[in-house]
Specification:
Elements: E1 2-3, E2 11-17, H1 24-32, E3 40-45, H2 52-61, E4 68-73, H3 80-88, E5 95-100, E6 104-105, H4 109-119, E7 124-127, E8 130-132, E9 138-141, H5 153-159, E10 166-170, H6 172-177, H7 190-198, E11 203-206, E12 211-214, H8 220-223, H9 233-257, H10 262-287, H11 289-304, H12 310-320, H13 322-340
Parallel strand pairs: 2-3, 2-5, 3-4, 7-11, 8-12
Antiparallel strand pairs: 1-4, 5-10, 6-12, 7-10, 8-9
Helix pairs in contact: 1-2, 7-9, 9-10, 10-13, 11-12, 12-13
């Protein structure tokens, strides 16, 4: 579906959707009702199995506003990163503004981004979204404290996190680097890092809540974090570790192939490689059969009830405090890893 196809517009606003029937109406209305217009709005659905695409077509079918509307649906579910890669091959505009089908954009989101785009040469523009829950209630802010000062590639590696809620980026990033690594769970660590390798001051943060970012159990980011309500913290921890491996590996590959001189990047490449080895070592520990059997015994003792002597307290500790337990395992594994390898240097 396409509407107002004859318009020549320099901005593309992409809404990525997948199984978000509960939230998609509010997300789309916030995109369609932006105060800055006209814009190209591309709504791309990743083969939703619920009513998400039906709601999209109904809402866009009745739209009579000034914006150019494109609606498309993947024939099969690609996953977020492959979905982004596919969409980026279809976009011709330089400025790409992105949104999720469960978030709500402030009416001036595009206008604020355009102001920064015109007055700076930033390649990635972020904001400080308000975090809401499944019901739409405010539960926090993306930057709970101060915004990081160092968004250089070295700063990103040092804190192990790009620290950017991406609102928009320049298509030049994809033109230069190509598709994102499909092993990545999400895009928010790779795009800022690649931008920081291209130039200094590549990232600009608008310290305003241009978006209401929804955190709920079905979101990708939530699935990578510890959830108190989730009983299988070991599985969540392993998922987190695998995410760290894929992110650090993508950083390593990008830094190694970048124009940065060998003298500048050599130490950082060594550090990234050491971290990857340590994460993989910890994954092996967590997947070890003996560890899994011991964890099963601990849970069995906890569920059996009875008196709580010292032996039983030791047994039930992982079941009662799973997040603390896996951190302790991580620490022990790191000590053992250090005994086998050279010091990490951080």
């Amino acid at each position: 579906m396409e509407k107002n196809n004859s318009l020549n517009i320099p901005v593309t606003y992409v809404v990525f959707t997948f199984n978000q029937e509960q939230y998609i109406k509010n997300a789309l209305e916030s995109a369609l009702n932006q105060s800055y217009s006209p814009i190209e709005i591309l709504i791309s659905d990743d083969c939703s199995s619920d009513r998400t695409f039906e709601i999209i077509t109904d809402l866009c079918g009745s739209y009579t506003g000034p914006n150019k509307i494109i609606v498309q649906r993947n024939k099969e579910n690609l996953g977020l990163v492959r979905h982004i890669n596919k969409v980026m091959t279809q976009i011709s505009n330089d400025l790409v503004i992105i949104a999720s089908g469960d978030d709500i954009a402030r009416a001036d989101k595009v206008g604020k981004i355009q102001e920064i785009n015109k007055t700076t040469d930033a390649l990635v523009i972020g904001c400080n979204p308000e975090i809401i829950n499944q019901s739409g209630d405010r539960i926090g802010q993306f930057y709970s404290g101060s915004i990081p000062e160092d968004f250089s590639w070295k700063g990103i590696i040092k804190r192990r996190n790009a620290g950017v809620f991406i609102s928009a980026f320049d298509k030049k990033i994809f033109d230069q680097w190509g598709a994102l690594d499909e092993n990545l769970p999400i895009e928010d660590q790779s795009i800022p890092f690649r931008a920081s390798l291209m130039k200094d001051n590549a990232i600009f943060i608008i310290d305003e809540p241009l978006v209401k970012y929804r955190s709920h159990c079905a979101s990708i980011v939530s699935s990578l974090n510890f959830a108190r309500s989730n009983k299988n913290s070991t599985e969540i921890f392993l998922r987190k570790l695998n995410s760290h491996v894929s992110v650090h590996q993508s950083w390593f590959n990008d830094l190694e192939s970048s124009h940065i001189s060998i003298e500048q990047k050599n130490q950082s490449l060594k550090l990234l490689k050491q971290r990857i080895e340590r994460y993989n070592y910890l994954i092996d520990v967590m997947n070890d059969t003996v560890f899994q059997e011991r964890l099963s015994i601990w849970k069995k003792y906890f569920l059996s009830g009875g008196s709580y002597n010292l032996k039983k307290i030791i047994y039930i500790f992982p079941a009662v405090f799973p997040s603390i337990f896996v951190v302790l395992v991580s620490s022990l594994a790191r000590v053992k890893w250090r005994m086998k390898k050279q010091p990490l240097g951080y």
